[in-house]
Amino acid sequence: MIEEIKKRGEAELGDRTVLDAFIPACQAYSKKVQAGSSGLDALRAAVDAAEQGALQTREMLPKTGRASWIGKRVVGEVDGGAWLCYKVYQVLYETLSNENSEVF
User: Fold this and answer.
1) Do residues 17 and 66 touch, judged by C-beta distance below 8 A?
2) Which H or E element spans position 98?
3) Could you tell me if 62 and 14 are in contact, meaning their C-beta atoms sit under 8 angstroms apart?
């Protein structure tokens, strides 16, 4: 999926896109699972990595997408796609970690 996003968006990690949250989240999840952690613990690591990646976009200049039209004016603001990625992971984790959840 990451490669598809890169190709379609002509973007890479560090370009101030959703990839800046998604790639670290996927890597953190995989690392935890490979180390024998539970899926929920791995998901928690993904949440943290996605948040950190999203927050790092504040200091990045956009290289692609709509934000690239605005240029330096977006510095200081978190990329919307990266923040959405973090929030999806966060809500998923909160839902699955809630003992009263009726998701499954």
Assistant:
1) no
2) none
3) no
Q: Are 59 and 15 in contact (CB under 8 A)?
A: no
* Residue 89 buriedness (CB in 10 A; 0-12 / 13-18 / 19+): buried
The SS3 assignment for 64 reads coil
Structure tokens belonging to residue 75: 């510095």
Calpha distance 42→103 (Å, rounded): 18
List pLDDT tens digits, range 32-47.
999 999 999 999 999 9
Residue 12 vs residues 34, 70, 81, 88: alpha-carbon distances, Å? 25, 19, 14, 21
Q: Is the pTM of this model over 0.70?
A: yes
